[in-house]
Amino acid sequence: DKPMHYILQDIVYHAPWLHSQITPRIKQWIEENSDANWKMLRHCFRILDVEQIPLEWFSSLAQLRLVTSDRIEDSIKWYAVWVDTAPETGIPAVKSWLSEMNANAASEAAQQFILQLLGDGRMEGGWVYYQKFKSVAYLTELYILMYQYICIEDDIARTGGVYSPTMRDDAQQARSSLFNLIAVIPGNDTYVALMELSRSHPGEGHRPRMLKQARNRAEQDSDDA
């Protein structure tokens, strides 16, 4: 009847040699406990040995939990798990999910989703474990999607001083982080994506920056060749 997640936390950080041995039991426990505490799940996911558990298991688990979930807070986390492990199906699912909401609800859900995926600078990196979405194509897709629902005209402009960041502050920062992740990936795919953003970025004022970043990418790749 007492919280036990601190034991899992110790195993995560201080007993990595044990992870592969207890992976089968952790996996079975997750499958049998659909209402597991999220703190427990976070530690369990970090313990699971990726050599024993295929990524398809995580995305299938997320989809199964989404069918039975009746709390949006839980759904947001499961969508993040899905996108993290199977972005090819997870991102279209998030698009469909957000499109079914009214504007205010979709904006709030998008903010919570991107923070669960990437973290807010004070979390443990959100629910990202396997980072399958960290390719140019998927990051660009997510970036455009977040601009659609975390609208630039609603951004909060801080002018200095002491303040407590709100979810909106963190979400717009996470949205920007998606672009930063794209820009540092070397190669022609990044250049092409940045050039496309310089022509079609939802915020027209950002297009010159996209063009500058595309040129920077080309120069850096040329120097490294």
Radius of gyration: 19 Å
In total, how many beta strands? Answer: 0
> What coarse outline follows from CA principal-axis ratios?
globular
Helix content: 55-70%
N-to-C SSE string, H for helix and E for strand: HHHHHHHHHHH
Binned strand content: under 5%
Beginning-to-end CA distance, first to last residue: 60 Å
Spans of at least 5 consecutive residues with low confidence: none
Q: Return the structural class.
A: mainly alpha
- Largest β-sheet summary: none
- Total helix count? 11
Please tell me the overall pLDDT. 89
Describe this structure in words.
This protein starts with a helix and ends with a helix. With 225 residues, the protein is mostly helical. The chain is built from eleven helices and no strands. The longest helix is centred in the C-terminal third of the chain and has 18 residues, at 207-224. Helix 8 (136-149) runs antiparallel to helix 9 (167-183). The protein has helices at 5-14, 19-32, 38-47, 55-68, 72-85, 87-99, 103-118, 136-149, 167-183, 188-200, 207-224. Helix content is 68%, strand content 0%.
